[in-house]
């Protein structure tokens, strides 16, 4: 009971308005990010979601080889670039430049993509 009231207190700003959650800001265009790490966390977790979805699709559709990896890299980097440059319209230099945002969480999402792709491809298409 005490933790619920503590959370409610934390969700209020000093001026009395309610603080917007991270995920609600992630899906609102031109959101204001108070903390740099908060936006980087959103980028990181969006990459993980994209990796799972693309790994599942690549595994179900019998896609193999370098072509699958290359298409994943282009889609992953491209979607996130469009997200932070067009949808959120953030100042890239505030986060270390376009390259820093583009590579945020990329390797972990790539590893997750490979695991999901291999599991689904092996389960569905291996004789």
TrEMBL record:
It is a multi-pass membrane protein. It is found in: Endoplasmic reticulum membrane. Keywords: Endoplasmic reticulum, Membrane, Transmembrane, Transmembrane helix. The chain crosses the membrane at residues 42-60, 66-84, 105-124. GO terms for biological process: mitochondrial respirasome assembly. The keyword Cell division does not apply. Pfam families: EMC6. One of its GO terms (cellular component) is endoplasmic reticulum membrane. Belongs to the EMC6 family. This is RAB5 interacting factor. It comes from Crenichthys baileyi. The gene is RAB5IF.
